[in-house]
Amino acid sequence: MKILFYDAKKYDIESFRKEALKYPEISIEYLETDLNPTTATLAKGYDAVCGFVSSDLGTEVINVLADEGITLLLMRCAGFNNIDLKKAKERNITILRVPGYSPEAVAEFAMGLALAVNRHLHKSYIKVRENNFSLAGLTGVNFYNKTAGIIGTGKIGAAMCRICKGMGMKVIAYDKYPNKSLDFVEYKEFEQVLAESDLISLHCPLTEENYHMINSESINKMKDNVVLVNTSRGGLVNTQDLIQGIRAKKFFGVALDVYEEETNNVFENREDDILEHSVVARLLSFPNVLVTSHQGFLTEEALAAISGTTLQNAMDFVNGTIKEENVVSE
Ligand code: NAI
């Protein structure tokens, strides 16, 4: 099987090369460029393409891939909100993903972000490097005995609940389908979780229904001085409303690993005019805001699990032994 791998980063190549030694039937060509209607034509002659959550897999790209004879799309990630699933089905493209490669990787990162903004680590790192050892402005709060509100308690949210519990926090949560294995978590309505939490961490997928679930209305229902963490998807938060909330001093800290502009690759393109007008740049102007570039998943363990499952998905497709839980459909 010949796979064309888009948007290959150094860490992807290292991890896939290592794992591919176990799959002599598979050959992979790595491209630095990501998928778009033009680069999709390069897939001609390949059996499958490998994409990521940031790839353009809209209607036009799916059509081009299908025209070039692609029948298998291997997503090396869990999320798939960037794919036109209806078109993929219509054009007979099977989509396989890696549903739960390392929930702890993302949950640990979410807690890392929460601690960083709470204890101002992002500021103290810079200050000490500049020989400024003053503690002014660095006071945080204890998370111990405070309330963590987890929105979405699937694999990552459950891991986050366990971490918060381990830190001595009371853990409350909102999920449409409560996770019965979390007997220490008290499930409440969304509004109640907003109103009672000192730390709110988002761990639900982005759907049409919860697009902008964090907006002016929901922010108003939160406690003052709440810490908000989003490692899930940018579209869950209305960024303009968030900025208003930050300006109104609602938040003790805000930490975002994901944001609405991500698909425009504001950071990778780094064109001054894009950055100047971007809401990310506006967010970065607030001292109590920390933004990272969708790195929650990035641990050695997660990368090994991603490459292993992606290549096994490819072989399962060839052998007709696809695992249902890895199939993405409408
Ligand atoms: P999962 O499918 O195991 O859990 C999602 C949970 O959210 C489920 O329990 C579901 O019932 C719940 N849910 C769905 N809609 C909801 C709503 N409107 N309100 C409240 N709960 C809702 O997914 P998993 O593996 O825990 O991943 C969660 C999200 O984390 C992914 O969808 C993805 O967006 C994000 N993610 C971020 C990464 C990063 O590097 N920052 C890496 C991997 C995933």
Write out key terms for the chains shown.
single chain, 330 residues, alpha/beta, seven-stranded parallel β-sheet, five-stranded parallel β-sheet, 13 helices, 12 strands, binds 1,4-dihydronicotinamide adenine dinucleotide
> How far do the termini sit from each other?
26 Å
Strand order in the largest sheet = 8-7-6-9-10-11-12
Q: H/E order of the elements?
A: EHEEHEHEHHEHEEHEHEHEHHHEH
Percent helix, as a range, is: 25-40%
Strand content: 5-15%
Ligands (ions, cofactors included): 1,4-dihydronicotinamide adenine dinucleotide
Overall SS class: alpha/beta
Unreliable stretches = 264-273
Quaternary structure type: single chain
Architecture overview:
The protein has 330 residues and is of the alpha/beta class. Helices cover 37% and strands 15% of the residues. It has 13 helices and twelve strands. The strands form two sheets. The protein has a seven-stranded parallel β-sheet, sandwiched between helices. Helix 1 (10-20) packs across helix 13 (300-319) and helix 4 (103-118) packs across helix 6 (155-166). Residues 264-273 have low confidence and may be disordered. Residues 78-79, 100, 103, 106, 151-157, 174-177, 203-205, 207, 209-210, 231-233, 257-258, 294, 296-297 line the site of 1,4-dihydronicotinamide adenine dinucleotide.
